[in-house]
Design a protein that fits this description.
- Helix 1 runs antiparallel to helix 9.
- By secondary structure, this protein is α/β, with parallel strands linked by helices.
- The longest helix has about 140 residues.
- It has a nine-stranded mixed sheet with strand order 5-6-7-4-3-8-9-12-13, with helices on both faces.
- Helices cover about 55% and strands about 10% of the residues.
- The two termini are about 95 Å apart.
- This is starch synthase.
Length: about 1050
């Protein structure tokens, strides 16, 4: 029968599972691991061999293991045989239980006695560490079954039996059955059984190793006894040789004794008379001596006979010992042969282990294919549902067609009658006449409309001419645009210097500032005329202009701890400079107040000079002097406060990170407000940033508004709520604030510690406007997870809290004019981007063989907030996908820096990966221009500027959906987003799976659709990420707040 494509794919994949992925598990009880024949004793070797023979006879023949699953009929036929074999195995030797498990949880179950080497206890301990489990395929299990049979281990017949739990998985090509939920539940049950079997298997392996160690110990004992018997045999041989020599010596003595007897007898007969006559006494003595010698010889002879009999007994014992030694040698040979067999089987098992590792990889790949096939099946089912709907619609259409055919038949019947046809023709002619009349009327109406249009065009031309004349008249009074912003900033600083030096009154200085705001030509001309004159004449010439009217522009002063590019740590410096320049271009007066750090880049400050004035400010119950410096940064007038405090607050070589940062910046905040008061400035808005200048808000309302500095509205921007600058409440008194009044839950008291104050909370409470750097981040910080303890305060003050997405400095980040690039380029000419990619690769030593090889860039601080673990994963995943990766950045966290240094050393000479663990401004521009993709996997990101800069340079962002990333990067595969806003790739969950999904989609689109990718690059480069939109929102907030304040003042 034919099968559906989706069902056929599933059948093929699960058939492959049956042939390649079917894995068996042994459940080995620890007390039944080895048969009795494996435990040999030297005392009764013959009985152990007999038992081994009985064991082999008791083990039934085991069927081979097939790769595929049997049909139900075959399984039923083999049930009786299986039960019989199981009963037989239980009476003889315990069997091995086998379970089929899923390939995700399958482990190496090939534990057998063959894993033993003849290497002693130490080698066995090393082999015992092999606890990693791997997949076993059907062929390996068959060979394992045969080895078990050779060792007499019963129970391998169960390998061919398929449990009922696995039968639903036996999908074949003919059936085309699909997976069901019941099968998945069975699969999870089998996985749990497999985990239990793994534990039993490990326990069995440990007991097997212990038994094997005991066998080896017994073998060593037997070998020792064999050696002792050999020594005793050598000693017996020596003793036998000595006994033989003594026997020969005894026989010689007996011969000599007989000779002596004969001689004595002969002498007795011949000399009897002579002896009796001559010496009877001598004869007696001689006879006595000879009798004594004879007695001694007899005693020696008897002792020798006893020794010979003892030697004969020992010789017989030696012969028995020789026979036992021969039997022991035979058993030793058998042991050595069995050990050699075990070693050969161990080598074969090691080869099987290497095969199993490859099978495990194939198993994982097959499961991934199964998952993909399941996804295809889901899609197919959805398509089938849609097809069913289409069929239903088609049926409805067929019904309509039938109705139309019926009506057509009726129409044909009507056409048969000529009279009705004539009536129909007459009606049609009447309708045609009516249409012609309507056409005539419409022509007349169109003609009248044309006449009206011509008249309106004439009127428009008249009004246009009048507007041109009026614009020419107004052009004489409009601001001058031929002077750079540095000129007007220098002019403002000069006027403020004269005011502080008491050369101008406050009112005159205000009028002159108004003229500068309006950029009037007359004040420009006066300045140009008096450049060659002395200061007194110049002041008098400027005083002649003090009759000019006031301007309606806003006067904004930023009090901040950073400003790019001279004092930049993070995004705060970019915001202060970018927002200030944008507001200045919109016609507002913007000034900046900064601490005078010793580590600033002073070459970025124009016309830096110290004013001839000393400012005193309160701190710790005393008045401390401050030097005031002025300069111009990026066309903006900037005041620098240099405290003459013994603590040398800003002469530390660092911007942040000191132990007394709370004191340093609370001193600066009060000195900045003291400067505004002493200089007589009346700003409309005082804008402070982050916790370092958050003290400005409570200081302004509690201390300086009563002193007369009361014209401003306070705007506070928090760029990152993770950094809140909390400190003991007592330290707040140093800058003159009332601790008892402010250390309250509704003011500055920290929400998590009642004995500490929180500057961020104080700024939120005391400011008129509170902003953060993106709309999504503004929503995130109002939750308990993202608010870092301030979510309740932010929700209470939600009416004045808003998120405004930051912009970027499009003048500094512009590939058309960027002098740090080798080749400038634009959205309409991308050849320069390709050349920059080649140049950057060569500069960093990367391969340039494939110009189309995708290059992924990443420029960031390596801190947990930025998702360093995901960056690390992206490096390796990019390499796996065939791309190149560039990382630029460093970490203030020591262990993170060391970790990435290790990765950098590992890829030091790699042709596709390069890590530069520092910040290099020039190299950053090159990486933005060279990269095809740019990854930002932040755990949380208040705004983020790198994704905007990357798009400005034609690098497609791959970002996590959080904070400002969610407000600026929109997925190209998200159909809910309009096509014109789709500009990158996003993922939601901060894990490796999310990164993989976004990277793989980007790589596939880059490789498979070059034309579409180029269009995406061009679209991203044309997106406007400038400060214009953000500045207009801030301008609206400023204006509304100032208008409300003025309305309230006029009513009072």
């Amino acid at each position: 029968m034919a099968t559906k494509p989706s069902t056929w794919f599933l059948s093929q994949s699960f058939t492959a599972l049956n042939y390649k992925q079917t894995n068996m598990r042994f459940s080995l009880p620890s007390h039944r691991l080895l048969p009795a024949s494996c435990k040999m004793r030297h005392r009764n070797l013959s009985s152990s061999q007999h038992k081994r023979q009985q064991l082999k006879k008791a083990s039934p023949e085991q069927p081979p293991i097939t790769a595929g699953f049997h049909s139900s009929g075959g399984a039923d036929d083999g049930d009786d045989n299986d039960s019989e074999t199981e009963d037989a195995s239980l009476h003889s030797v315990p069997s091995l239980n086998l379970d089929v498990v899923s390939n995700e949880e399958v482990v190496d179950a090939s534990v057998d006695v063959e894993h033993v080497q003849h290497a002693g206890a130490k080698d066995m301990e090393k082999n015992a560490d092999l606890e990693h489990v791997q997949d076993v395929d059907a062929k390996d299990l068959h060979s394992l079954t045969q080895e078990m049979k050779s060792l007499g281990i019963d129970g391998s017949e169960k390998l061919s039996i398929i449990p009922d739990e696995m039968k639903p998985l036996a999908l074949n090509i003919d059936g085309g059955e699909q997976l069901s939920s019941i099968q998945l539940e069975d699969l999870t049950g089998m996985i749990r059984n497999a985990e239990k079997n793994i534990l039993l298997l490990n326990q069995a392996r440990v007991h097997a190793l212990e038994d094997l160690e005991r066998i080896l110990a017994e073998k060593e004992i037997l070998q020792g006894e064999i050696n002792v018997l050999g020594m005793r045999l050598v000693e017996n041989d020596a003793r036998m040789k000595v006994a033989a020599q003594e026997k020969i010596h005894a026989e010689l003595m007996e011969d000599q004794l007989e000779k002596l007897r004969n001689e004595l007898a002969y002498r007795g007969e011949n000399q009897n008379k002579l002896l009796n006559e001559e010496a009877p006494l001598l004869q007696n003595s001689t006879i006595q001596k000879l009798s004594e010698e004879l007695n001694t010889l007899r005693t020696e002879n008897t002792s020798l006979k006893n020794d010979i009999e003892a030697l004969k007994g020992e010789l017989s014992n030696v012969k028995d010992t020789d026979e036992r030694v021969i039997t022991l040698e035979k058993e030793c040979m058998l042991l050595e042969s069995s050990l050699k067999d075990l070693e050969s089987k161990l080598s074969v098992s090691q080869e099987d282990v290497s095969k199993l590792s490859s099978l495990k990889v194939e198993c994982k790949d097959l499961w991934e294919k199964v998952e993909s096939l399941q996804a295809l099946l889901d899609k197919a089912t959805k398509q089938a549902d849609q097809a069913i709907l289409v069929l239903q619609q088609n049926q409805e259409l067929w019904k309509k067609v039938d109705k139309l055919e019926e009506s057509l038949e009726e129409a044909n019947i009507y056409k048969l009658s000529s009279e009705k046809l004539q009536q129909y023709n007459e009606l049609m002619q009447q309708k045609i006449k009516l249409l012609e009349e309507r056409l005539k009327q419409s022509d007349e109406e169109i003609h009248s409309y044309v006449l009206l249009y011509q008249e309106s065009v004439l009127e428009f031309q008249d009004t246009l001419n009048t507007l041109k004349e009026e614009s020419k008249k107004k052009a004489l009074d409009e601001p001058v645009d031929d002077m750079p912003w540095e000129f007007w900033s220098r002019l403002l600083l000069m006027i403020d210097g004269w005011l502080l030096e008491n050369k101008l009154s406050i009112d005159d200085a205000k009028l002159l500032r108004d003229m500068v705001w309006k950029r009037e030509s007359r004040i420009r001309d006066i300045y140009l005329e008096c450049r060659e004159k002395n200061e007194h004449e110049a002041v008098s010439m400027f005083l002649k202009l003090t009759s000019s009217p006031r301007s309606q522009a806003l006067y904004v002063i930023h009090i901040a701890a950073e400003m790019a590019p001279v004092a930049k740590v993070g995004g705060l410096g970019d915001v202060v400079t970018g927002l200030g320049k944008a507001l200045q271009k919109r016609g507002h007066l913007v000034e900046i107040i900064l601490p005078k750090y010793d580590c600033m880049q002073y070459d970025g400050i124009g016309n830096l000079r110290a004013l001839d004035v000393v400012l005193e400010s309160y701190f710790d119950g005393k008045l401390y002097k401050n030097n005031i410096w002025v300069g111009i940064i990026e066309g903006l007038p900037v005041y620098f406060i240099e405290p003459l405090h013994p603590g040398k607050f800003f002469w530390r070589g660092h911007f942040y990170g000191e132990h007394d940062d709370f004191k340093r910046f609370s001193f600066f905040s009060r000195a900045a407000l003291e400067f505004l008061l002493q200089a007589g400035k009346k700003p409309d808005v005082i804008h402070c940033h982050d916790w370092q200048t958050a003290f400005v808000a409570p200081l302004y309302w509690d201390i300086y508004a009563p002193k007369g500095l009361n014209s401003a509205r306070i705007c506070f921007t928090c760029h990152n709520f993770e950094y809140q600058g909390t400190a003991p409440a007592s330290e707040l008194a140093s800058c003159g604030l009332d601790v008892q009044q402010l250390n309250r839950p509704d003011r500055m008291q920290d929400n998590s510690a009642h004995d500490r104050v929180n500057p961020i909370k104080g700024a939120v409470v005391f400011s008129n406007i509170v902003t953060t750097v993106s709309p999504t981040y503004a929503q995130e910080v109002r939750t308990s997870e993202g608010g870092r303890g301030l979510h309740s305060t932010l929700n209470f003050h939600a009416k004045k809290f808003i998120g405004i997405l930051n912009g970027i400095d499009t003048d500094a980040w512009n590939p058309v004019t960027d002098t740090l690039l080798k080749v400038q380029y634009s959205a309409n000419d991308l050849q320069g981007k390709a050349e920059n990619k080649i140049a950057t690769r060569r500069r960093l030593g990367l391969s340039t063989a494939d110009a189309r090889q995708p290059l992924v860039g990443c420029i960031t601080r390596l801190v947990p907030q930025k998702g360093v673990h995901l960056i690390r994963h992206a490096i390796y995943r990019t390499l796996e996908l065939g791309g190149q990766f560039l990382l630029l950045g460093s970490s203030p966290v020591a262990h993170i820096q060391r970790e990435f240094e290790g990765i950098a050393n590992h890829f030091q000479n790699h042709e596709h990966i390069r890590l530069i663990l520092k910040y290099d401004e020039s190299l950053a521009h090159s990486i933005y221009a060279a990269s095809d993709m740019f990854i930002i996997p932040s755990i949380f990101e208040p705004c983020g500027l790198t994704q905007m800069i990357a798009m400005r340079y034609g690098s497609i962002p791959i970002a996590r959906k959080t904070g400002g990333l969610n407000d600026s990067v929109f997925d190209v595969d998200d159909d809910t987003i309009p096509l014109q806003f789709q500009n990158g790739y996003t993922f939601l969950n901060p894990d490796e799976k999310g990164v993989n999904s976004a990277l793989e989609r980007a790589f596939n689109y880059y490789r498979n659709n070059p034309e579409g990718w180029q269009q995406l690059v061009q679209k991203d480069m044309k997106i406007d990420f400038s400060w214009e939109s953000s500045a207009s929102q801030y301008e609206e907030l400023y204006s509304k707040s100032v208008a409300r304040a003025r309305a309230a003042a006029s009513q009072s």
